[in-house]
Design goal:
1 helix, three-stranded antiparallel β-sheet, elongated, 9 strands, four-stranded mixed β-sheet, Immunoglobulin-like, 16% helix, single chain, alpha+beta
Length: 206
């Protein structure tokens, strides 16, 4: 006769199970038995992940007004053959990204979100990075997706002739004004002292 059974082979690199059979002789009453092991290598599918970064109200390449606050979406998809655990998304521009889950089954996806300013430069680029750990075996995986767009609108500027500290953009008008006042005060007191000395000399001569 043929007996049947079913079960999972697990998530290791190989699987072994051992079949055992026992029977009792109908005449002698002796218990007899036998066993047969069965081993097979396990082909674990590769783990893979994808992230797609978008702005909620702007397509990639559309001009965005400088200093605008944008809501970003990060679509994370399990494109591999293993479930994924410890799924997270980061943004290189410091945007705090929130995801609704930390695990994705094979073929499953989720949308994470974050909010941040595009700044005041000529263009804005940020890079989303999705990280995950395969549930069965393999090293953690990560993938990136960049989003970039030109910025429009007025560029913040300072009045013409206002000195700035090299490399900092800091306004140095106040330090220069103070220095000018001190210099003027020094000239005034020097002139006053010379005038006083001339007056005293004339009085002595008189």
């Amino acid at each position: 006769m043929t007996c049947t059974g079913s079960g999972s082979v697990g998530t290791g690199t190989s699987y072994t199970n051992r079949m055992q059979v026992t029977a009792e002789g109908t005449v002698t009453g002796v218990i007899v038995g036998a066993e047969d092991p069965w081993t097979v290598p396990i082909d674990v599918p590769a783990a893979a992940i994808r992230v797609i970064k978008d702005a909620v109200d702007s397509a990639v390449g559309d001009p965005v007004t400088r200093a605008s606050v944008v809501t970003w979406s990060y679509t994370v998809i399990n494109t591999g053959g293993q479930p994924l655990r410890a799924v997270s998304v980061t943004d290189d521009q410091g945007v705090i990204v929130t995801c609704p889950a930390s695990a994705l089954d094979v073929g499953q996806s989720m949308v994470c979100t974050g909010v941040g300013s595009v700044g005041t430069g000529e263009r804005y680029t940020n890079i989303a990075t999705a990280l995950a750990t395969p549930a069965w075996q393999g090293v953690p995986i990560e993938v990136e997706d960049a989003w970039t767009t030109p910025l429009s609108g007025p560029v913040p500027s300072t009045p013409a002739g206002t000195p700035r500290l090299p490399g900092t953009g800091a306004n140095t008008l106040i330090p220069f004004t103070l220095a000018g006042l001190l210099l003027a005060a020094g000239v005034f007191f020097g002139s006053y002292r010379r005038w006083g000395m001339r007056v005293l000399s004339r009085r002595k001569l008189g």
